[in-house]
## 1
Amino acid sequence: MEYDFLVLGSGMAGLTFAINAAPHGSVAILTKKQRSESNTNYAQGGIAAAIGKDDSWELHLQDTLTAGAGLCDREAVEVLVRNGPRLIHWLIELGAQFDKNPDGSIALGKEGGHSRNRIIHAADHTGYEIERTLLIAARRTPHITVLEHYQALDLIVENGACAGVQVLDTLTGDLFEIRAKAVLLATGGCGQVYLHTSNPLIATGDGIAMAWRAGATMGNMEFIQFHPTTLYHTDAPSFLISEAVRGEGGILRRRDGYRFMPDYDPRAELAPRDIVARAIDAELKKTGDPCVFLDITHLDPEFVQRRFPTIYHTCLQYGVDITKEPIPVVPAAHYTCGGVWTDLDGRTTIPRLYACGEVAYTGVHGANRLASNSLLEALVFAERAALHATTRLDELPPKPKPSCIMAQLPPIEPAPEIHDHAYNWDADRLQIRKVMQKKVGIVRTVQRLNEARCELEQLAPQIEAAYRMLSPTVESCEARNLVACALLITHSALARKESRGLHYVLDYPETREEFAACPTLITT
Ligand code: FAD
Ligand code: SIN
């Protein structure tokens, strides 16, 4: 099979690229499950853009830089916030139905770290509405083919440039190649590398691992965002309780009812996520409780049900009526701030290979992503990447500026002998996720990071050897990608000898001025 443009992933980044590239050539979108299954589909709170009367792109820029704790790329943030309003209108023109005020203007919610109300939303299922809109638009656009249940395994690199991908048909087990003039990684993040995550099962960091194996430069992988509030329930996966709940007045309390957030930050429940997640972590360690509580019982029950229908019904399913009782919550891994290094046009360091959305490191999130900026990033940079790929494909690839934090992670070599456990992909996957949860979580120490590195370095060659020996399966590919992502996160975390934003290390509690504007770059 051969196409002009090959898009890996059918979330917001992949679909936006495809719709913009299709007028210039044939596009195939490869997706490993059914087309709507993506992080995008589960996004709750909304998408940030400075469209309010009291707002401006300059204020959005300032809030993003503040949340990013000195590590955002200012130019990238400017591209993000300046293009936001225009692209929100593009989504509306395509048919997206966002919540409106009684006067017909777009309703704007509030989330942590934003100095203005600027979150455009569709109740608490904004991602579903966006995914629905983009899938319909893609179906209507000539020259787009969606290939479901096709899992990309590895990139094909020929003469130094990306020429396509190796693919597994997950329904038949067949292996084949798809070739293209340009390939876009839009495979999302790697939340599944942690035991507790808000992410769906698809988020196994496949694109991150594939790009790293192919020799692309990676950026800032240590910055993993933990969302402060996912439902704590023994039978529930980590279901997200949107930050918009705190935006509407939700209060975080301990089991004894004490409101603890003002003790940590004057912005209380609406402080940036790293601060809220660390405060909850500290309270749980102090009290020994398994969870804290998010209380919205003081809000009008009718408003709660209308504004948060998904959260209301899901919690009710688990026996929690959020209009009558506080919601038990814990932090969980939510967003991969780093990823495959790209320039402002979505270009990676490998010619003809682009990356957009959560898989990419563009520099916009710095050390901590501002709430609701990730859907916007996927939208803005996918449009730019499509423009570049369709008009300037043959330009020489960009080079990242050297940074004062550079690390190397050589490719994983297969172990000469395989222990039995390497055939048990579920066990390997669980081991990776447990190690990461326990040793590379919200609060880190050098000793625990080194212990994680050793365990992962023992496991990775076993997985690689078993992967090469057996026919690839969804499970084996994902285990291989998860361990690669886990190693990238752990090595990056060890390389950054300071605390900044989401990366908090007890051995280096200070933020060091000399590391401001220094992303952690990893090469093979
Ligand atoms: P995704 O939407 O994750 O799409 C990735 C695609 O790649 C999927 O189609 C997947 O199947 C496919 N794929 C992966 N690997 C392969 C492979 N090997 N081969 C083929 N296909 C593959 N952000 C906000 O800005 N606002 C919010 O309100 C918000 N809420 C969120 C709520 C939840 C519960 C979660 C999990 C995330 C939320 N986020 C939010 C983050 C945001 O949803 C994501 O960052 C964003 O949707 C990423 O879009 P994407 O297109 O890059 O990737
Ligand atoms: C949420 O609704 O809290 C998620 C928002 C985000 O991840 O940006």
Note: The domain at 229-332 is CATH 3.90.700.10 (Flavocytochrome C3; Chain A, domain 1).
## 2
Amino acid sequence: MKKYAKFISLLLAVMMFAGVFAGCGGGSNTTSTEPSAPASTEPETTSTEPVSADFTTITEGVLTMSTNAEFPPYEMTDDNGDYIGIDVEVAKAIADKLGLTLQINDMGFDAAITACQNGASDIVMAGLTVSPDREAIINFSNTYAKGVQVVIVTEDSDIASIDDLEGKKIGTQMGTTGYIYCSDTPENGGYGEENVTGYDSGITAVQALINGQVDAVVIDNEPAKVFVQENPGLKILDTEFANEDYAIGVTKSNTALLDAINTALTELMNDGTFQSIVDKYITAE
Ligand code: ARG
């Protein structure tokens, strides 16, 4: 609720600034707490109503999603170069519900967030962890998955828990929460920036581990499982680094789209579609 209050006050500030444009259907003028919206098309979205059509996207009829498709099983390419993964299929299912065609724009991880922030994409789906810093620049949908930051080491490593990471060389994907936590100061629970290398992708970090350039990789648990399975000689430590929530990032001004996405997501969860997508990619242990 605190989060919501912050969001609403931010939104009110944006509305005061952009008030003159409020009737133009930009989508920045709708919250459920607003007494009377200037636009007559304001959606009154609750989870029980059908998905509202009162939203705009950057290209009419298209849901543009930015991502970094190097994060199995959430987003990756198959042998034909087609995008697959949990996020891809969930995004497709949401787009279907909203009557939109899904357009996927693959780029670096940081760039995928920035694209959503700048309105170059409507949404970012990238196994994206909800964090206060990110909530300041984009909106987040309801959460749809749990992520755990875990540690990958070589099978013969002397690193047995996260306490042994002190003074070791750590590889992460640039811009990820793994990088952000690990590069923080020891007082804040990190290992110091000088000990952490940010790679373009998780698999590049894992390659660096295999080549002996780093001693450990900190990354989300599901990609970690995939990378360890595909690269013999690696293991995941039992101790967890951090627990996180994944959500869909939506451009801040587009609250109408956020509402529609949340409604669609709830429906996909309630009718079992969401779980069946997850089950395709993650086998229960
Ligand atoms: N969950 C982590 C984060 O949000 C890592 C996500 C990386 N995703 C990707 N598609 N490369 O920072």
Note: The mean pLDDT is 87.
